[in-house]
Design brief:
Length: about 55
């Protein structure tokens, strides 16, 4: 949120720093959601994640 606040600043240095902080926040959010979204996508595609992890 502070990155978005700085990105709206009139100071060009603060704007660049704000854009960089906002981009880092988006990367963090994607990295946090990726372990949840990949198994959901694989199950939707018909690949059972549990059977891949625990072969019988």
């Amino acid at each position: 949120m502070t990155g978005l606040d700085k990105a709206g600043s009139t100071d060009s240095g603060a704007q660049a720093q704000g854009k960089q902080e906002a981009k880092g926040g988006i990367y963090s959010l994607v990295a946090a959601l990726l372990p949840v979204l990949v198994p959901v996508f694989l199950n939707t595609a018909g690949i059972d994640v549990a059977s891949c992890l625990f072969p019988t």
